[in-house]
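Morning F.,

Quick status update on the modeling queue. The single chain you submitted on Monday has been processed. Sequence for confirmation:
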Amino acid sequence: MPYLPYSIELHDSEIASVSLDNSTVTMNFSPAYVHSGGKGWVRSAQLKVYAATVDSGHTKYPAKVADGRMKTKLGSYHNLLMLPLDTDGDVELEIEFFSGNVLRTKGEGIDLVFTSEPVFVEDYEA
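Structure tokens below.
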């Protein structure tokens, strides 16, 4: 898999589960769609928001992501999460699902770790 820059496209990803434990929100992507070097890959990933609150409405998982937005001290993102993703400070994340439900979380730090090897899906034009 090519090196940086790369990103997760929320629109083509799916969240398998969301949990809150000791004020850490954990979102398990299965799969996350990863753009890298003009190619598309899928990988499982775990995104954590620390010192967090979460409102996930009545979403049933797994759920396909339709769109999303995130703000961190690194900037604002729409539908793409630039990688690597590991920062402290204020975080606001909103994920919209095709069901119409919305997941919102706010916290004080975020990171993302891949939990599987990449699987090639397609070439694409940037």
